[in-house]
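Subject: mismatched residue count in predicted assembly?

I count 317 residues in my input, but I want to confirm that the predicted structure covers every chain. Input:
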Amino acid sequence: MKQQEFLNIVLPFRDKMYRLARRILVSTDEAEDAVQEVLLKLWKGKERMSNYKNPEAFAMTMTKNYCLDRLKSKQAGHLKIVHSNYQSPHARLQDQVEANDGVRMVFEIMETLPEQQKMIIQLRDVEQYEFDEIAEILDMKPTAIRVALSRARKAVREALIKKYNYGVS
Amino acid sequence: MELAKIESLLEQYFEGNTTLEQEAQLQQYFATADLPDHLAPYKDLFAGFGYMRQQKSETEFVVPQVKRRNPIWGYAAAALIGVLLSVGVFMNNSADDAPTLTAEQQEAIEAFEEAKKALQMLSGNLNDGIEGMAYLNEFDKAAEQIFK
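Triage response: the counts match. Full output below for your records.
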């Protein structure tokens, strides 16, 4: 497979990989690194790529797995503590300066969700994948995804309304 | 879209029962409509998803290049190996020559010594013979006297 052929396949969903990575890892730098790593792995295994029915779902699954692994090793290495101690949530939102406080709250709430709920909301409400595609990416049954999605959306709603009632910070 | 329909759609949304099309309708509605207070949080919710969708990776992926070496290095390496080999062989030869001889070489030296002895014996006998020929001179003298 030629470079250009490879890039033509991966570029359309590269940003989706990045956003999923960013949702899981929170840090923009780490999300960029994750995308590079996963693309490199895809490039090395490019001969097999034409065998996959859906390269995008495959790439998203790899991104998910890579990020969850990163998260695990980060937690093992205490890096997470450093992260949450010294970086305010607002610092991570530099690229959303134009967003209002309500939108910021949505970002913050998303960060507090468990990983699985984060990923499902990301894939459905942000990337607008069909349930079948999400099922393929996360290796879950579509019915289980529906249930988890409902739970995640309700968790976001509850937190959001609570914040609203306390007044927009 | 009337409010009642939106509210029921929203209810379905939180149950995870809406289609992508219905979710797009909700998104559009909350992006544009003038909303009653109790729906205000949902405007932020859908706007938030919209912002998240705009985030883009800023690092370009560069396909790693397989480095193709200049062929001259190949020739240089081959030449170097050749030189090293010949030096090695030469050193080996000069170092090992004297002390260790093959059986064949030793046999050859022995044969040489034997041949030398044999030749010396032969030349010794030959010398004896030549001494004996001194008598012939007497014969020559006598012959001169007669044929003068």
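Residues 3-54 of chain B form one domain. Marking this ticket as 'not a bug'.
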